[in-house]
Write a structure and sequence with these properties.
By secondary structure, this protein is α/β, with parallel strands linked by helices. The chain is built from 11 helices and 10 strands. α10 links the parallel β9 and β10. The two termini are 26 Å apart. It binds 5'-O-[(R)-(carboxyoxy)(hydroxy)phosphoryl]adenosine and zinc ion. The site of zinc ion has 5 residues, from α5.
Length: 363
């Protein structure tokens, strides 16, 4: 046993006897450099997010090389601020957690390497966390009483999944996108509407001024009984509608187009996830949560809340601060793992295509 492994063993024993467990969490999977200190998996002592949005705006999307460089430049100060705002030193922490996938490999590696270095230097347990599990765990920060099992729609830039959260370690996939993720569809349509990056929130803003019933985009696949999604056809239909109008010299109201597109996506997400929850037995059939960057979309939150209420299902969604990428949710997701003593070795790698089901292995 190495000196580091001995220190971790001692810490794990000490954590069981302590009244509170404090985790420093780090997130660098995409274009936010974030660090947070979380107590007992639910209480946010600090939550620092440095967004790279201005760096990527000129390119209309995230440039991986620029993202990695900026993470390297900012991670030290972001972590320092998270500790300062929590009023804690490294020695007062119980573990270091970090997103190790899915995400951009170069961006993930910055957080993973930094977290390993801190854990080794401070003799603290090291925990790798799945980014999708973190988005789901954002709900625990807003609803400290919420516990699995529940059904959850995860809609982000890279994922659209309907999942039953059986426990902190076990996830059962009910449905997923066959092509674009919901956030990706928002981003691509925003781009053709001439909106700046990041597309999703800018499209939502434009949609507020438009008529959601002006245009209809049929989607045969999504009208079926299954729980899988397909958004690529809808995205193409919007793009074609815009191009056809431009070629014919026909005036088209971009706000109406944005509102109609948003309504189409929102209705599909809300309808399928409520139907998926209803099909579950026990508590997972009575509770539906929302997670991922697209959960910041007000139209989606409202549509899900309304449909869930009609079906007699309780609805949960994270506070806005925890919807898009942040490290508070990483600390929340890591807490269960720490309490089970499931630490990771310092040889843990960044895994760009890490799936949520990998998380279930061995559970
Ligand atoms: O979870 P997230 O911050 O990063 C990933 O893990 O992908 O999600 C980012 C995605 C982007 O596609 C962004 O456009 C979308 O979430 N998004 C939104 C809104 N805010 C963020 N989509 C629609 N409406 C929003 N208000
Ligand atoms: Zn995310």
């Amino acid at each position: 046993m190495t000196e580091y492994e001995r220190a971790v063993e001692q810490k794990l024993q000490a954590v069981k006897a302590k009244p509170h467990a404090r985790i420093l969490a780090i997130e660098t999977s995409c274009d936010e450099t974030a660090a947070a200190v979380i107590e007992d998996g639910r209480r946010v002592l600090s939550n620092v997010v440095h967004t790279q949005i201005p760096l990527h705006v000129p390119y209309g999307g995230v440039v991986p090389e620029i993202a990695s460089r900026s993470h390297v430049q900012k991670i030290g100060s972001v972590v320092r601020r998270a500790l300062e705002e929590a009023g804690l030193s490294l020695a007062e922490l119980d573990a270091i957690a970090v997103t190790n996938g899915p995400g951009l490999v170069g961006a993930l590696l910055v957080g993973v390497s930094y977290a390993k270095g801190l854990a080794y230097a401070a003799g603290l347990p090291f925990l790798g966390v799945n980014h999708i599990a973190s988005h789901i765990a954002a709900n625990y920060l807003s609803y400290p009483e919420l516990e699995p099992p529940f059904t959850c729609l995860v809609a982000s830039g890279g994922h659209s999944h309907i999942i039953v959260v059986e426990s902190g370690e076990r996830y059962r996939l009910l449905g997923r996108t066959r092509d674009d993720a919901a956030g990706e569809a928002f981003d691509k349509v925003a781009r053709v509407l001439g909106l700046p990056y990041p597309g999703g929130p800018n499209l939502e803003k434009l949609a507020k001024e438009g008529d959601p019933k002006k245009y209809r985009f049929h989607s045969a696949f999504n009208e079926g009984d299954g729980f899988d999604f397909s958004f690529s056809g809808i995205k193409t239909a919007v793009v074609n509608r815009l191009h056809n109008a431009e070629q014919a010299g026909e005036a088209i109201d971009r706000a109406d187009l944005a509102a109609s597109f948003q309504k189409t996506i929102v209705d599909i997400l809300a309808e399928k996830s409520v139907r998926a929850a209803k099909a579950q037995e026990g508590l997972a059939g009575e509770r539906l949560a929302l997670a991922g960057g697209v959960s910041a979309n007000r139209a989606l939150r409202e549509a899900m809340e309304t449909r869930a209420a009609k079906a007699g299902i309780a609805f949960y969604c994270p506070a806005f601060a925890y919807c898009t990428d942040n490290a508070a949710m990483v600390g929340s997701a890591a807490y269960g793992k720490l309490m089970l003593g499931e630490t990771d070795s310092l040889s843990l790698n960044a895994v760009p295509y890490l799936s949520i089901e990998d998380q279930s292995q061995g559970a």
